[in-house]
Amino acid sequence: MTTTTEQFTVRHDGVTIPVTRGGEGRPLVLCPGLTSTQAELHELVELLRRDFDVFTFDLRGHGFSSAADRYSFAAFLGDFVAVMKEVGRLELPSTPLLAGHSYGADLILHYASEYPDTISGLILIDGANPLPAPFITQADLPEFRALWEYVVTRQEAIKGTPRQVLLTAQQILDLNLELDVIRSGIDIDIDVVGTGILDRYRNLDRPIHLIMATAMAGDSNEGRAPRHNRLWRAGMDQLVRERPDITTARLDATHGLVVTHAQDVARIIRTAHTLAARAAS
Q1: Domains in the chain: ranges and CATH
Q2: Buried b (16+ CB within 10 A) or exposed e, 119-145
Q3: pTM of the complete model
Q4: If you count Cβ atoms within 10 Å of the first and of the last residue's Cβ in the chain, which end, N or C, has fewer?
Q5: Which residues neighbour 107 within 8 Å (Cβ) at sequence distance 6 or greater?
């Protein structure tokens, strides 16, 4: 299936953000995660366009979005607000459904809690997890620092392409540490975090669907992976107890499920939309 796409640019906080629109059906805005781009999500986007009018974009410093002077959760969230304002100016048949992966899930949750009337529901893909303890501890720092150094080194081969990420390894690590604090509910910036991530869920009356990876940190029984997987499951289990109305789908996959299991993710999103539409009718 070939879908005609159109592009427009959003300018905010000195950053230019390319937005791509394509497909037919209910409007859906897809927010990628940290170190991910709309180009990397190409297969998932193409599958979703069969049933949705899909809007995708690149975070600042990712893909063809320009680099920025600062990278923080507040900065990324501000960019997303700007994107949604532009989407809101279009003559859409309904308020859009938001989908976000990993860091993108946290961004759309925080946005939805502040602007609930501008969205019809949330699809949170392995993110926005109210963790009961920090994901990255002092014992994990060497491993994560090495991971992001490796990721940045590999970026040299794709520099100047739609898949590039312009952040340094230290910037990526700092953003992950900041996100740990946000997910734990500790106030670091009252304008961004508020009174905790669980309160974001408690105060939101829109349909929420979770798509979870069963082995977020991989299926190894060695090293820190088992601890990370237990912590991830504990956070999600706590969330479902707090909001039993949230529907949950689990995929036998790792955190990269939007790439490795794009067909399954698209199918679940399609089903969640159908069920929500039936409930509303």
Answers
A1: 5-280 (3.40.50.1820)
A2: bbbbbbbbbbbbbeeebbeeebeeebe
A3: 0.94
A4: C
A5: 31, 73, 76, 77, 80, 100
